Amino acid sequence: MPIIDRSIPADVKFREWLQSIDRDRDGRVSEQELREALRALGRRWTGWKAARAMKHADLNRDSFIDGDAEIGELMSYAANWGIVVTRDGVMKTR
């Protein structure tokens, strides 16, 4: 379970993180953007992990993470990787 500041829900913090990795500001996250974000977190095998995350969370198979359901799926999947929200809202790995 992600570590969170109790005053701000985890899903809000996760959405803020997704907005920060949305490089082209189109309101959705591509596999490439996710790969770069995982690399910035110091993760290994980022291409494979991003592809797996997209397969798991991209419910409508449009190659983007967007919408509440897909964001929720990605958030759950990210917890499996040990990605947490710190008290100051920064995403990092345990």
From TrEMBL:
A Pfam family recorded for this sequence: EF-hand_6
Keyword list, A-Z: Calcium
Domain EF-hand per the UniProt entry, residue ranges: 9-44
MF annotations from Gene Ontology: calcium ion binding
CDD domains assigned to the protein according to its UniProt record, in alphabetical order: EFh
Annotated SMART domains: EFh
SUPFAM superfamilies: EF-hand
UniProt protein name: EF-hand domain-containing protein
Biological classification of the source: Eukaryota, Viridiplantae, Streptophyta, Embryophyta, Tracheophyta
